[in-house]
Specification:
The chain contains 17 helices and no strands. Helix 6 runs antiparallel to helix 16 and helix 7 runs antiparallel to helix 15. It has one domain: Growth Hormone, Chain: A (Up-down Bundle), CATH 1.20.1250.20. It is an all-alpha fold. Helix content is 80%, strand content 0%.
Length: 396
Amino acid sequence: MSRQIVVAIGGVSAMLSLSIGMRQSFGLFMAPITQAIGLNTTEYTLAIAVQNMAWGLTAPFIGWLCDRFGSLGVMIIGALLYAAGLIVTIHATGVGTLLLGTGVLVGLALSCTGSSIAMSIAARVTHENRRSTVLGLVTGLGSLGTFLAAPMAQQLMASEGWKAALWSFTALALLMLPFAVMAGAVDRSTSGRSAGQPVAALLPVLIQASTHRGYVVTALAFFVCGLQLVFITTHLPNYLSICGQDPMLGAQAIAVLGGFNVIGACVFGWLGGRYPKHLLLGGVYIARSMAVALYFLVPPTPASTLIFASAMGFLWLGVVPLVNGLVAQMFGLRFMATLTGLAFLNHQLGSFLGAWGGGMIFDAFGSYDMAWRFGVLIGLVAGLAQMLMPSPHPRG
C-alpha cells in the first residue's frame, strides 16, 4: 500500500474508534443523568432513540455528499457537532435539552463520522481482492475506542461525576479533527467516487436497488442488527444494576464487547473475501439471537456477563464489512456511501426500537423479558432470510 492509503486508513480507523467508542458508552450514563435532572428510563432512552434516528435519516444524504464532493469537510463538521452535542448534554436541564444534545446533535455527528463514511473511504482506496479484509480491519480498529471509552467513563463517573466523564468525551470528540484530516487525504483521488455528477445520475441506481431482492433483504435484515445491538448497549448496564451487580460490570462488559469486536470484525472481514457474504451474515444474526436467549434465561453473574459480552463482541461489528462488501459487490463503488447509508437507515430504525422500545417495556412491566424475547425471535427470522437471499453477482 502507498503511504497515502496507509495514512487514510489509519486516520479513518482512529476517527471511527473515537466516534463509536463514545456512542457505545451512553448506556452507562442512564442512571446518573436521569437521577440528576429528574427523568425516567423512557425519557432517557428516547434521547438515544432520537440519536439513532437522526443518524439513520441523514446517513443517505451525508453519504451522497461524500460520494460527490469528498469526505473531509463532512468529517470535520461531524467532529464539531459531536463536541457540541456533548456540551449541550452536560448542561441539560430536562428532556428537551437532552433530546437536542444526546439525540439530534450527536446523531448528526455520528452520520458524519460513523461506519458508513469509514467503510466508503476504506473501500475506495483498496483493491477489490483485499477489500473485504481491509473493511474488516478498519471495523476492528474502529472498535478499540469502546474498549477504552467505557471503563474511562465509568471510572470518572465514580470519582468525579458524570459531567466530568462527558467533558472527557468532549475532548475525545475534538481529537477526531486531526484524524479526519488524515482520512480526508483520499479526497485527492476521485477513484470510485461520483465527483461532479448530478443528482440525476443517482436515480437509476436507487431504482435498481429498490427492486434488487438481495439489496432489499440485506437492508431489512440490517434493521434487526440495529435493534439487538442498541438494546444491549443502552439497557445492559441498567439490567445489571437492577439485578444487583456492581455498576462497573456494565462498563467492563461494554469494554469486552469492544475488545472482541476487533477480533470478530477482522475475522469476518477475512472470511467475507473467501465465502459467500450473505451466508456469513445470516449465520451472525442467528448466532447473536442464540447468545441473547442463553444469557437472559438465567440471572446474570459477572462470569456469565463477560462470557456473553465476549460472544456478542465477536459477532457485533463483523456485519459491517459483510454488508458493505455485499453492497460493493452488487452495485460497485460509485454510489457506495449513498447505498450503504440507505441500508443503514433500516439499521437505525431498529436501533430506535431497541433503545426506546426497551425503555417503554421496562417502565411498563418492570423487566426486560418481553424485549429480549422479541429480539431473539426477529433475529432468527432475519438470519434465515439473509441466508436464503439469491447469491449476489460481482459488479466491477
